[in-house]
Amino acid sequence: MPQTVFNVLSQASVFAGETTGGSVLAKVVTAEMMNGVMDEVIGLLPVCIPVMVTFIGLRKGISFMQSILHAA
Fold first, then answer.
1. In sequence order, what DSSP letters do the residues of the chain get, joined into one string?
2. What is the distance, to the nearest Å, from the Cα of residue 35 to the centroid of all Cα atoms in its chain?
3. How far does CA 38 lie from the centroid of its chain?
4. Angstrom distance (rounded) from CA 71 to CA 63
5. Are residues 6 and 13 in contact, defined by beta-carbon separation less than 8 angstroms?
6. Which of 8, 10, 13, 40 could disulfide-pair with 4, CB 3.0 to 4.6 Å?
7. How many CB atoms lie within 10 A of CB 14?
């Protein structure tokens, strides 16, 4: 049996899982907003990629040094 929630404004019970009129997010988010998000993500790439490469390089370097010291 589905759970019900009483809607005070319309004086009606609303069933959980029941959708009315489509997605709320589709009504709020516009193409301009998504373009702004994409521009910010693209703007962060020149910072994030070198940081990730440096981090991976440091991890590999530390691992290499540990394997040399362990073998000695």
1. ---EEEETTTTEEEETT---SS-HHHHH--HHHHHHHHHHHHHHHHHHHHHHHHHHHHHHHHHHHHHHHHH-
2. 16
3. 13
4. 12
5. yes
6. 13
7. 13
**pLDDT tens across 11-69, in order?**
555 555 555 555 787 788 888 999 999 999 999 999 999 999 999 999 999 999 999 99
Total length of the chain? 72
| Category of 47 on φ-ψ map: left (φ > 0), alpha (ψ -120 to 50) or beta | alpha
* Close Cβ partners of 2 (under 8 Å, ≥ 6 residues apart): 15, 16, 17, 18
